[in-house]
Every structure is written in structure tokens, then in C-alpha cells.
Amino acid sequence: MKSDEVAYELLQNLGYAVEVISTSDNEQKKEADFLICYKNIVAIVEAKLKEDDPNIINEKERNLVAGEVSIVEGKLGRNEIHSGIINKATKQLISSGDKEHDFKIISFIATGSNVKTKADQFKDTIYGSTLIMESSDSVTTSKICYFFRNADFYRKKEIDAAIVSYILNDKIITQLCLNPYSKKFEVLRNSIFLEPFNGAVIDPIQLENQGLAYIPDADVERTLNDFHKLSPVYSPILQHLTKKYNTGFLVGVDFDSPELSIRTNKEE
């Protein structure tokens, strides 16, 4: 399965006109994959596909054949493998920047096992996001916190958005993730270019304004030393959020997210 083939079909099904960017042997440069167009608005797209490691595939199959439960481990939060994918995609998008375009977008598609976790890890990596639990008056609530830690969208301001998808039961679930640190953020968030997503758009600024998310101020230090990691009480970022949003006690959590599966006999 090739990333460009899957992404090509996905983008066409969304309603975009898709043109493959050819690589010139004379130029010897690594181009992005596509130019996509919707109502005369054009974006350069680099497609990346996250499949299972062969060892995971083999181990899962051994367990299923033996009639055992297969467990594919996963954990939410920043993922350095995804960060490497983003770094490579950014270079390819910049390389194709000489093409006439309005936006630069990464397309990330997760396939194989535990696909939702892969997609959520990618979003946690671009947004530096985590889940914040608040304890107040014997009640515990939670909100997502964007840019809680170092985020690839902050580092890669050239990227205007990411299309994050995963394939589950032969269906593709897709969201477009806006980059608030892009210079074109306001233009893109208000653009008809987003119409094909039918509202499946993540806009951290809008979510914060609606009281559905936290965003720390940009000048707050994200890097934690060993002392800060001893307890949430010592975390400067959690202390900042508590003051900014006038909350109760806060804790940041990256949950484990394993996938459990078993093979059944359809004839039973």
C-alpha cells in the first residue's frame, strides 16, 4: 500500500481536484506529492502513510492463529517517529514551494492495527497536546490542552494544516487540523477550501474560546526538569494553566491506548 495512492483516492473522494506533482530527474529534488484544488484555491500536499511494523504484524497473527487475544500496545502523547515523518514532509513541501499555491498541507493516514491511536499520536505530536484532568469539589473533569509540550506545528510554522485520517473496517475517518502558528491561519480557517470536511476541522483557538480546551501562553517554558516531574504541584505549565483559567488541581495524562482483538469463526 503506497501513501500517495491512498491519499489520492481520499482527497478525490473529499471533493478536491488532485494533480500529481512529477519529479524532475534533472532537478534531483524530492517533491511533495500533490497539488489539490477546490473552487480555485490550491494547496500543496505531501502524503504519509503509517503502517504496522512487520514484527507487530507477525506477532499479532501468531496470537490470533493460536486462538489467543492479540494486544497491540499504544500510548497517547508525543511520538518521535511521527515527528520524523513531519520533518521529512515539511522539507518536501518546502521543496515544492515554487509551485503556485495558497497553502501547504501534510496528509497522514494510519493503517493496520490500533489505527485510532496512531492518528491520535500524530495529533498529539503536531499540537503538543495532552489530556488535563481537573479535580475540584470532589468532581473530576477533563479537557484537552493544546501546546502543553513542544509541538511540531509550533516548530514548523510553514505547515498550514494536516489532514489526519485512519482506515477502520474499510472506512476512512478524516479530520483537518489547523495550525494556529501558521501565518495563513486566519485565511485558511475562514476559507471555503475547508468545505469538503463538513465541519470535521480542529481549530484549537475556537475550542479554547468555547471553553472546551486549554492553551498555555506561548512564552511559558514547556521543558520540564527532573524536579518539575516529581509532582504536578511543581509543574510550571500546570501552575500557569491553573492561574490562567482559575481552575482546581490539574494533572496532565497521556493514557495507554492498547488494541485488543481475537479471531472468531464466522460460521459459529
Brief characterization of the structure:
The chain is of the alpha/beta class and 268 residues long.
Task: Note the topology.
Layout (H helix, E strand, L loop, with lengths): L2 H12 L2 E4 L13 E5 L2 E10 L3 H12 L4 E3 L7 H16 L7 E8 L4 H13 L2 E7 L2 E7 L6 H4 L5 E8 L2 E8 L6 H5 L11 E2 L1 H6 L3 E2 L21 H10 L3 E5 L5 E3 L7
Parallel strand pairs: 3-5, 5-8, 7-11, 9-10
Antiparallel strand pairs: 1-2, 2-3, 4-13, 6-7, 6-12, 8-9
Total discrete domains: 1
Report how far apart the termini are: 32 Å
- Secondary-structure class: alpha/beta
> Low-confidence segments, ≥5 residues, pLDDT <50?
none
Choose one word for the global shape.
globular
In oligomeric terms, what are we looking at?
single chain
Largest sheet: 7 strands, mixed
C-alpha Rg, in Å? 20 Å
The average pLDDT value, as a whole number, equals: 88
Percent in strands: 25-35%
The counted number of beta strands is 13
Percent helix: 25-40%
Count helical runs.
8
Q: Output the helix-strand order.
A: HEEEHEHEHEEHEEHEHEHEE
Question: Spatial order of the strands in the main sheet?
Answer: 1-2-3-5-8-9-10
